[in-house]
Amino acid sequence: MTTAALDARFETARQVADAVLFEGYVLYPYRASAAKNRLRWQFGVLVPPAWAPVHGEHCLQQTELLMEPKGDAPLAVELRFLHAQRRTVQEAAPDGTFTDVDELHLADRVLVPWDEGTEERVELAVDLGELAGDGVTLPFTRPAGEETEPVVDADGRTVGRLVRRTEEINGVLRLRASELNCAYRVFKLTAVVENTGGWRPGAEDAGRDAALSRSLVAAHLLLGLGAGRFLSMTDPPEWAKSATAGCVNRHTWPVLAGEPGRADVVLSSPIILEDHPGIAPESIGAMYDATEIDEILALRTAALTDREKREARGTDPRAAAVIDLAESMPPEVLERLHGAVRSLREITDPDVPPDAPTGLEPFGGQAVFKPETPWWDPARADAAEPVPDHVLVDGVPVGVGSRVLLRPGLRRTDAQDLFVQGHAARVEAVLHDVDGGVHLAVTVEGDPGADIRREQGRFLYFQPDEVEPLEEP
Predict the structure, then answer these.
(1) Which residues pair with 91 in a beta bridge?
(2) Are 42 and 24 in contact (CB under 8 A)?
(3) Torsion (CA) 256, 260, 263, 265 in degrees, nearest 10
(4) Cβ density class 138-155: b for 16+ within 10 Å, e for less
(5) If residue 85 lies in a helix (H) or strand (E), which one and from where to where?
(6) For residues 168 and 215, what is the distance between their CA atoms, to the nearest angstrom?
(7) Are 62 and 191 in contact (CB under 8 A)?
(8) Which of 103, 112, 237, 416 is the most buried (most CB within 10 A)?
(9) Dihedrals φ, ψ of 461, to 5°?
(10) 27/391 Cα distance (integer angstroms)
C-alpha cells in the first residue's frame, strides 16, 4: 500500500490519534514551573526494559483483535509516538560564550528548560500471508542527536541559544495473525510494540527523566485493512463474542476509527475510547490538557497574568499557540464551546402527524424529534413543577415528619454513616434529583444539634432502600 493511500485511509482517524499523542503534553496553566507540568508524559509510556520492572512501568504494549479480511488483503500499520528531547537554555556572554541559565527573559516570553516531544512514526505495509506463523518483526532505531537554535531579541541581537539533545531509542514492532476455527473466515491479529533499549540506570542518570528520554511516549497504533473489516471489541457480532473475549490487550485498547460506518481502520490507544471517536466540531484548536474542556480552558487561559503568559509562551511552542488562541478567540466562537446537544434524531416517517403528543414537529416535509423540556430546565415555563412529597417504602408512604430506622447501604455510604446504623431518624425533606432519583433528608433522633441542622439545612441523606418505616410512638 502506497504512502498516499495510507494517508487517505488514516486521515480521519489521525485527528483523534493526534489528540491521543499530545493528551496531557502540557497542562494548564501551561507553564514549566507549574507542579503538574514537572511530572510529564502521563499516557502510553514504554520505558526501557531495565527501568520497567523496578518502577512499575511498562516496556511493551499488546493489541489483539479480530478481523475478517477479503482474500490476501494488505494490512497497513502506523506506529506513532513522541521522542522526548531535553531543551536547555543558555545565555550569551560578551565574549561569545554561552552559559546554562534557569531563565532567559525576552520581551514576549520567558525561556526555561523543558522536555519537548517530537513526533515519530514507524510505517509498515504487509500482506495477510506474511503474518502467518511467527509473523513479521520490524526493529527500529531513533539515533541520539544535538542541535542548537539561536535566540535573538527584538533588535536582532543574539542573546542566547536553545540546545536540544535527544537520546537513542530502540524498539521493535511485531505482527502476526492466525485463523480461528469457526464458521467464518476470521483471523486474530496480534500487534506488539516493545522498547528494546539497552540503557540501564547509572550513577549520573538514574532518575525517571533519564528513562523518559529513551522511552516511546504516548505510543499508539493505527491499523488499516485493505479489504474486509475489523470487528468491534465492545460490540462484536453475537457469533464472535467468545473469540473477542479471548483477545488479550495489554496497556492499550483498540477501537474502530475513521469515518462512522466503516470498520477497516482501528486506533489502538493507551487511552480507552469508544468506537469511532471524533473531535468535536466546535473545538477550534488543541489545548493539550488531560480531560480537556475547551471553554473552561479558554476562559482560564485568558485570565492568566501577563507574566504567566510570557512564561507559558516560553515553555513550549504549543503552549504559546494556546495562549494566542485564547487571546484571539472572538465571542461568537467562544459561545459555540458552551455545550452542544447531539442526541436529537431525525425521524423520516412522513406519516407522523405534526400534532403527535410525543413532541414531534414538522421540519422540511419530515418530522424531527424534539424531546420534552425537563422540569429542571429554566427554559420550561412551568419549571417549578411540583414533585411528589412522599415515597413508598415497603408499601408505606414516607414523607416529611415520618420516622424511619436507618440501614445505610454499604455500596454507597461513607464511613460516618455507619455510626447511625440502626438509629431512629425523622424525615425532614423528600428530594428528587434530575435523574429521577429520590433522597431522604433526615435528622437523627436524640441528636442535640438537630435544631441547628434544620436551621442551616445540613442533613444526612439516604435513599429509600436504606430506611425502614417506623410507626409513630
Answers:
(1) 99, 160
(2) yes
(3) -60
(4) eebebeeeeeeeebeeee
(5) strand 74-92
(6) 9
(7) yes
(8) 112
(9) -125, 135
(10) 46
CA–CA dist 219, 52 (Å, integer):
15
Report pLDDT for 428: 94
Task: Spell out the long-range contacts of 366-370 with Cβ–Cβ below 8 A and sequence spacing 24 or more.
Answer: 368/344, 369/344, 369/345, 370/344
Closest to 165 (Cα-Cα) out of 99, 86, 90, 111: 86
- Which pLDDT tens digit goes with each residue over 342-385? 655 554 545 545 554 444 333 333 334 444 555 555 555 554 55
Between CA 216 and CA 45 the distance in angstroms is: 6
- Classified as helix, coil or strand, 209 is helix
Which DSSP letter does residue 93 get? P
The three-state secondary structure class of 437 is coil
Cell, residue 69? 479480511
From residue 326, alpha-carbon distances to 290, 308, 319, 417 in Å are 17, 14, 11, 45
Is-above-0.90 flag for pTM?
A: no
Structural contact between residues 197 and 214, judged by C-beta atoms closer than 8 angstroms: yes
Confidence (pLDDT) at 206: 74
Query: Integer distance in angstroms from the first to the last C-alpha of the chain?
Result: 83
Beta sheet of 360-363, edge-to-edge order: 346-347, 366-369, 360-363
- Residue 309 has φ and ψ, to the nearest 5°, of -70, -40
